[in-house]
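A brief tutorial aside. Many learners find it easier to grasp structure tokens once they have seen a single protein encoded end to end. The record that follows does exactly this for DUF3570 domain-containing protein. Read the sequence first, then the structure, and try to relate runs of similar tokens to stretches of the chain.
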Amino acid sequence: MRKKRSSIQESSTQKSSTQRSSAFELASGASDKHQCKRYRNINKSLTIASFALFSAPVMATEIDDSKDMEEADKTSISLPTIASEKKLEVTKIETALLYYQEPDRVTAAEGIFNLQASYGDKSELEGKLLLDTLTGASPNGAAPQQQQQTFTRPSGNGVYYAKNGETPLDDTFKDTRLQLNGNWTETLSNTDKVNLGFHLSREYDYTSLGVNSGAERSFNRGNSAVNLAFGYYYDIIDPVGGRPVSWAPMLFRDDFSSQSEFKQAFDKTRDLSSSIKQTFDLSVGFTQLLNRYWLVQGNYSFSYLDGYMTDPYKIISQIDERGTAQGYLYENRPDTRYKQSVFLLTKGALETGVVDLSYRYSADDWGIDSHTVETHYRYQFTASLYGQIHLRYYRQSAVDFYHAFLPELDELPEYGSADSRLGKLTAYTFGIKFGHKLQGGTKFSYRLELYQHRPQDNGDERVGQLAHLGLYEQVNAVIAQIGFAF
């Protein structure tokens, strides 16, 4: 779980938001494909785009924007034991490799395999397999100091250091994740569809299981559609070294006369049992075709999370009146959370390509309000070559219990975290993408994006040496991806 893919997405607790973002990417991708046809088949575009809003989460990053099944090569697999007149047809296979890097910090490599198939003319199946690895160093939450700092590793075995004036980073950040998603869509009639999906993700200290389902009805001669979806996720957290007790102090081996004495004291600060988190998601949405070239989509989502949401590897510095750290405490977050979000999108076909513009507003009872504005513009150079620009702006307020540090003599608050992902921040993304199609329908895409994460001053009163140190360090990242579909 170690910091996860947090830097790729601003808020550490935005799992359901990520899922909905993925759905949006699919929705966008579905419509993008139709730019060449200028929405000649409007009803089909509408159906694909709207249904993607509540489909199962498929991928954190897009593989290929294409959704045109008719152009995909098809491989047939007969299923004579089920129905002689039906057969499972593989309609599309997509693969992608993604590389993410924050200089001197996290590096991630991700491989994605996505398969789409149809069974008869009313059933569609989609499955995705994802494998990624993360290595590098992650901020542990402690405030920088003018002198070198020493920290005990989460396992209790060994220490790591932060140099003078630098943001403390835990250099043991390493994880591998395997994720599998599946989704079955059934067309019940000319106006109704339902879907059922599952989710499984496993990494060293985190396991996630989930199911989701949804339904869609179109009307107004197929120009309008509404949808309803829900999801349930059950996560098991088993941190390295055990789960720190709330506000437990970080212990140091040098303060004890023997290893056994240190181990005994260390174990008292830990709960070795696994922790549970449950997530309930509900969303409703609509899609409206405005004319031959433009459509709008809207979505409202509500999430309730219950269980362990503290990051077991994050700490907060306790400082004295000189701004010098006198100790470190493991953070403590609430065990419930309510989140709501509203998402609006408009998308249209222009003379030169396809453009979309979206806005998302999210709020939760932890105190975060966030705004996201995003746009893509795709230009079709030729029938088989396109280029795309991507711009994204994100801004959020801090959670109510965010503290960059805690005064040593003050009474401890009920909750507290120095995780910059929960603080006030803005983020920018600029990306370009090129794609081309070879004879026979094989497609390649290349994406490069620059991401900038800018934490803001949250108003903590700096004393002593903290007034001269950078508490809110900007983070830059590069994202590169190669996709292949046939």
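Self-check: Residues 1-83 have pLDDT under 50 and may be disordered. If you spotted this yourself, you are ready for the next section.
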